[in-house]
Amino acid sequence: MLAIKTRRLLTPLQELRNAVVLIDGEDIEAVGLQANTPIPEGCEVWDVGDRIVAPGLIDVHNHGANGHFAREGAEAVRECCRWLATAGTTSWLCNIGDLEGIKGAVEVLRQGRGPGESSIEGIHVEGPFLYPKYLPGESTDPPLPAELSTYHAFLEACEGYLVMMDCSPDLPNGLELIRETRRTGVISCFAHGNADYDLFMRAVDAGMTHVTHTYNVMSGMHHRRPGVVGGALTCDAVMCELTADGFHVHPAAMDVLVRCKGLDRVCLVSDTQAAAGLPDGVYNWSGRIIDGEFGWTDVTLIKKDGVVLLADQDENQDGALSSSVWPIIRGVHNMTYQVGLPLKDSLRLASLNAARAAGIDSHVGSLEADKRADLIVIDEDVNLYATMVAGEVVFQSEEGRSVLVDA
Ligand SMILES: [Zn+2]
Fold first, then answer.
1. Spacing, Cα 134 to ligand 1 middle (Å)
2. In a domain, 202, yes or no
3. What is the pLDDT of residues 286-326, one digit of tens each?
4. Quick one: which of 221, 252, 249 has its CA closest to 234?
5. What's the CA-to-centroid distance between 392 and ligand 1, angstroms?
6. 379 lies in which domain range?
């Protein structure tokens, strides 16, 4: 058994001073104040002193990292798992948009977590049911209908691991697809579309409960045309993702989201892709669906100054950012230091809320007895000193890893 002692622990719903976490194998045995949580005889003790112990971070929208897209196969998925461990992310959903790419993730899910890895908890498909015009750099062709047979092909390929399916309700047959997603027990997410407010609310009636990267690639809020953003901000039935890397959404808009949704209905996501963790440069990877086909094409991406752009666009074009390159720990930092949330609440958006969003909060998302021993050790500035997954220390750094440096 292991006892981790700290002067400050964030569960994240509670803040405990002079606390201890008792870990037995892969799971948390107890969490409490040192004064009334006896450490068993012979127990190994790790005292982190003034450093903060918090739940491991959970990312429900992540395409890849460190030179690998999750769609590239089982080994690429494991590479992502290892890199995410170094960034404090202990659980994640692989975001994969094409049928072929799902195989590797399913293989890893079947085999289970390996040493040094964060844990994949399922698959999020941001794939065939996006409105083409609302994919950066994509064609203006009319969209293909959202075919239930295509959805079922994905459901089958995921072998029970499909957690989230994205759909733009303005596609022909979009509402039907949302109903079917809901009917088959998968979380239906709004993504990449230009629905107006009324259509968005019809999608919610049909069973949509989650909004991907709120504000990005969706109709914005005008006071007479509240759009998807107006619906997302005001409808309590939906959980809103937020890419809080500091580039995708202005801090004031991040603040508006939390003020409207409260602390229960926002979850931070990274939306990272393969360029996360790599130095600035021009990369040639594939990553998008063209013309409704499940084909992948080479697209030149430029990583520079914290963002990734498609080579033929510039940052002044709306939607030109191509995913992100920052793990969600950066979002925790930004919610605290750009928006002004208490650290406890910023952590909650990236742990417990994300776990609830993915329906995995029965075993991860907070520090409490009987949950998996997934935690991070950080300081006040959100520098990362250690990551633990299922009781295994998968990352440790004496100087601390800064969230402000990505490679
Ligand atoms: Zn997206």
1. 9
2. yes
3. 443 333 333 344 556 677 777 777 655 544 444 456 778 89
4. 221
5. 32
6. 2-55+361-401
